[in-house]
């Protein structure tokens, strides 16, 4: 009788383990996490390639935060040129962040178009891309082959937040810099899909230099339109419930939750369905680069939460607390930076994919079999 009871108890334990593995939330530990996003710190000429006074003021503000961030993500266009007459500007820019990195705050960087220029802006230089990969050694190397430290992903220590960065200007050789809107290669899209398939993180964030939806421009302006690869990317973000896409490139601040009222632009063939999950586009495009005042707004600046006054620069502080991500935005010049805008993103737990439902079905079958076995033994 005792042996029978032990066998029944063992079966019950197995059934409970199956149920807990399949049905309990798997999206991390609802951790608390803080990080910073900013982009476009470049100066306007070879003499002043980095807007150092503004960038130093922002770094000083980050140092004074009561709770320091775990890391900083920079969204590209750090300097006017990646190289100037043989001088490595990327390393010089990185040195400005030593007050943060010396305290253990990790610096991640993404590629902008200006990192790839030398003395002239008409050509992207492959050697600049390779130098970027050597300078930013904290960028992970888990991207597609050849994209190491250019496209990458990482998970927060508690497993509840997923982060990825993409490179819209990936080079295999020197080329003319005609498509400043960039292109998201299929290799990166396929890689990102594989990375996301392996995570159950509640929060998901993407960093890339170029926006999908432009705020200012003069159609048909290559600087104010995206191509279909960006539509495919946004379709993936929407289906997989990303919190936001953070970008730069346009020298202003804007954020907008992209819902079904905003059509894909450009549309694909076959067309993608209306957006469903309100992924936010966070455009934080100047922490030093001159504000974009030369072209007209192509969106309603009020609805898109645009800030674009003269000599005003920005950074965003993101706090994750359980299912909620709070984005607090700061603005200033070379003086102290102050809060001026905030918004929150609330994420539901991730719904299991089809393959996970298949696993759940198998678990239910096993559970039924376990109870049948228990009844059989009890009735003997």
How do you describe this structure in short?
This protein is of the alpha/beta class and 380 residues long.
Distance between the termini: 11 Å
The CATH superfamily name of the largest domain is Metallo-dependent phosphatases
Please provide the count of β strands: 16
What CATH architecture of the largest domain do you see? 4-Layer Sandwich
H/I helix tally: 8
Main sheet makeup: 6 strands, mixed
Total count of domains: 2
Rg value: 24 Å
**Class per helix and strand makeup:** alpha/beta
The CATH class name of the largest domain reads Alpha Beta
Strand fraction: 15-25%
CATH topology of the largest domain: Purple Acid Phosphatase, chain A, domain 2
Helix and strand pattern: HEHEEEHHEEHEEEHEHEEEEEEH
- Pick out the low-confidence regions: 11-28, 349-367
Kindly state the mean pLDDT as a whole number?
87
Outline, from the CA principal axes? globular
Helix content: 25-40%
Trace the largest sheet across and list its strands.
5-2-1-14-15-16
Description of the structure:
- By secondary structure, the protein is of the alpha/beta class.
- It has 2 domains: 1-25 and 358-380; 30-348, 4-Layer Sandwich (Purple Acid Phosphatase, chain A, domain 2), CATH 3.60.21.
- Helix content is 28%, strand content 21%.
- The protein has helices at residues 2-23, 52-64, 89-95, 98-101, 126-135, 186-197, 228-239, 354-379, and strands spanning 32-38, 71-74, 83-84, 87-88, 106-109, 123-124, 152-155, 161-165, 175-176, 203-207, 244-247, 253-258, 279-284, 313-321, 324-332, 338-346.
- The protein has a 6-stranded mixed beta sheet, covered by helices on one side.
- Strand 7 and strand 8 (161-165) form a beta hairpin.
- The longest helix has 26 residues, at 354-379.
- It is globular, with a radius of gyration of 24 Å.
- 38% of the residues are buried.
- The model is unreliable at 11-28 and 349-367 (pLDDT under 50).
